[in-house]
Amino acid sequence: MRDILLIVLIMWNMAGFSETLKFDYTQSGQQSWYNDFPECSGQWQSPIVIAASRSVALPLPALEMIGYHDFLPLPLVLTNNGYTVTMNFKRDDLRKRTPYIFGALLDENQDYELENFHFHWGLRNSRGSEHVLHGTRHPMEMHLIHRNMKYANLNTALQHKDGLVVLGVFFNLQEEDNDLLKPLISHLPEIQFANSETKLNTSIILASFLPQHLNTYYTYRGSLTTPPCNEVVTWIVFASAVPISFKQMSKFRLLSNGKGILADNYRLLQDVHNRKVYVRRTYSFGANRNEINDLDISTLKWYYE
């Protein structure tokens, strides 16, 4: 019975209803996550510090992103669940396939379908992202959650090591508004309070929320960054960031978590342990086309032995 309940809670959490699982983002609160969620004390947890000097540079295949330049099917539901802002959508239109990804170091012939995406941000501009890249903590990070389509549903995927792929996207501050973000940010006042949601009357294109340059990415094996911290995630974190204005960033900090300001909703950094972090370097970074063609990614290991 306990296992069944946990599975149900996991599904609600990943669907954007994290209030089902009660946890605390304070330092002391995070250090006690493992009391209720033992896997949060695992060896391969996320987020981590990412640095080129500690990554294995290879001419890895590109990440293929299908449907990212198409409009997401309506209705889109934007939710403030007290822990983050989540965008969910329904899959009622059978004429359109949900955006999906493949390639990179993912298993051959495996597609990963988008489930939803959400954000982590700080109260101050010097913090907010979960991953730290080259010693920098960005003011915000977006996570796009994808389910391995060989599993019928999220429930099943969460029970397998190759169940999920999460794309990590950083945001950098600038003076001018990023017009591509307006279709989402303009609706944030409608979800000011915890456990509120709003339906978007206009659709969005996922590519609008991605960096212009996707050639360089870092990838490693890790976990969900919220309880229950399942170690079922292949992370792909892009090196380039998306611009966002100071004014647009402030809109996130006007939201409430039910007790105060919704911000600093990022997890403490976790130990890398024996994991490898790969960074994609194409032939333009020194490898020639023969090296790219000769690379057998099936022989690459995710961990140091």
Short description:
The protein has 305 residues and is an alpha+beta fold.
Summary keywords:
305 residues, alpha+beta, 12-stranded mixed β-sheet, two-stranded parallel sheet, 7 helices, 27% strand, disordered N terminus
Sheet of most strands: 12 strands, mixed
β content, as a range? 25-35%
Mind telling me the C-alpha Rg? Answer: 19 Å
Unreliable segments of 5+ consecutive residues: 1-19
Alpha-carbon distance between the termini?
37 Å
How are the elements arranged and paired?
Layout: H1 2-14, H2 27-31, H3 33-36, E1 49-50, E2 56-58, E3 63-66, E4 76-80, E5 85-89, E6 100-103, E7 112-121, E8 132-133, E9 140-148, H4 154-157, E10 164-174, H5 182-185, E11 196-200, E12 217-222, E13 233-245, H6 246-252, E14 278-280, H7 289-294
Commentary on this structure:
The longest helix has 13 residues, at 2-14. The protein has helices spanning 2-14, 27-31, 33-36, 154-157, 182-185, 246-252, 289-294; strands spanning 49-50, 56-58, 63-66, 76-80, 85-89, 100-103, 112-121, 132-133, 140-148, 164-174, 196-200, 217-222, 233-245, 278-280. The model is unreliable at 1-19 (pLDDT under 50). The strands form two sheets. Strands 2, 3, 4, 5, 6, 7, 9, 10, 11, 12, 13 and 14 form a twelve-stranded mixed β-sheet that branches. A two-stranded parallel ribbon has the order 1-8. The chain is α+β, with helices and mostly antiparallel strands.
